Amino acid sequence: KKTLKDVDFKGKRTLVRVDFNVPLEDGKITDDTRIEAALPTIKYLVDEGAKVILMSHLGRPKGKVVDSLRLDPVAQRLAELLGKEVTKVDDCIGDEPKEAVSEMENGDVLLLENTRFHAGEKKNDPDFARQLAELAEVFVNDAFGAAHRAHASTVGVTEHLPSVAGFLLQRELNALGEAMENPGHPFVAILGGAKVSDKIGVIKNLLDKVDYLLVGGGIANTFLLAKGYEVGDSLVEEDKVELAKELLKEAEEKGVDLVLPEDVVIAEEFKEDANHKVVSADSIPEGWQILDSGGPKTIEKYSDIIAKAETVIWNGPIGVFEMDTFAKGTNALAEAMARSSARTVIGGGDSAAAVKKAGLEDKMSHISTGGGASLMFFEGKPLPGVEALDDVE
Ligand code: 3PG
């Protein structure tokens, strides 16, 4: 795909899709990683003398204006990080953005309002996409986190403008691509999260690539059930038990070691201060539920496998890590990865949050800024936002 280096940006109105979908609490940004991650592209464009028009979605406002999801706090934070004025307008199409763009000097930075305030964004409505594209002469996609969405601001605009990849998008594709296409062995994947149904495609794709698949979290419960264990009140997907059995068989046939928890932390209630204890995974009493797949034996086993790995990819916590009582397994995995000399790649979303919560982000080779996007990548599927960019001739 074409990149920033393929374009002369001087004086060009440049529409840049970034993923500024950051967590907010009471109007304050609680994690600005995604804004920081976009800085290399923005700074480069500023230095090249482009007129930088940024756009992003924030949250899920369902095609209507939601005041709490305006991008003003983002504009403010971006201005601080850039050390430069950032103009913010209150819509992403129409007269206000047009006028603001017409007043821009080379090197100026403008932030449009939340693209999802218009229903046309998610529908990839051609007219909405055209109105966005009309603001600019060239398009840069740097929103890896939104690259799995075929929306107007990620795909639609590419119909109208020369379209290239930004530095963050490139960095993500290189890091994830290198791990998936050219891994050192043993290649270990850790999959957690709540539901098997979200991860079927990923598991299938990984079974053709990895040497070990360490399973935890809600997914593991369904696998334990498939092995004939009782899992009490644990979160399971009864209708996925047959599928889990097939996947266990497929793993065996393909020589992949699909590893399940040996012992787990169970609780009487889904509560931080619930009565809890460690039990063997095959003896979960009725009325109890697994809230952390990482009992001490499981942690030891998974950590040993990680220690001898050359490449580790991780998606999804293996317990309810938001509650400290049930975060031990997830933290232990993060620590095992931090200790290992393997190339360690963390899918975005919850696993990235867990690594940050443990303060280990500097110890990983790559932490993706994309949750759903990295999952789709691990699934081996093409990302629509990447596919839509111009190919190098
Ligand atoms: C994310 O946070 O994963 C991306 O910004 C995409 O957000 P979405 O899941 O609301 O499309």
Description:
With 393 residues, the protein is an alpha/beta fold. The chain has two domains: 166 residues, Phosphoglycerate kinase, N-terminal domain (Rossmann fold); 196 residues, Rossmann fold (3-Layer(aba) Sandwich). It has 14 helices and 17 strands. The strands form four sheets. It has a six-stranded parallel beta sheet with strand order 5-6-4-1-7-8. A six-stranded parallel beta sheet has the order 11-10-9-15-16-17, sandwiched between helices. β16, α12 and β17 form a beta-alpha-beta unit. α8 crosses α9 and α10 packs parallel to α11. The N and C termini lie close together (9 Å). The relative contact order is 0.13. The mean pLDDT is 97. 3-phosphoglyceric acid binds next to loops. 3-phosphoglyceric acid (3PG) binds next to loops.
Strand order of the largest sheet: 5-6-4-1-7-8
Strand content: 15-25%
CATH superfamily membership of the largest domain = Phosphoglycerate kinase, N-terminal domain
For the CA atoms, what is the radius of gyration?
A: 23 Å
Give the helix tally.
14
CATH topology of the largest domain: Rossmann fold
Count of β-strands: 17
Architecture of the largest domain, CATH level 2? 3-Layer(aba) Sandwich
Return the average pLDDT rounded to an integer.
Answer: 97
Tell me the structural class: alpha/beta
Helix content: 25-40%
Main beta-sheet strand count, sense and barrel state:
6 strands, parallel
Uncertain runs:
none
How does the overall form come out from the CA principal axes?
Answer: elongated
Total tally of structural domains: 2
Question: What distance lies between the first and last C-alpha atoms, to the nearest angstrom?
Answer: 9 Å
Small molecules in complex = 3-phosphoglyceric acid
CATH top level class name of the largest domain:
Alpha Beta
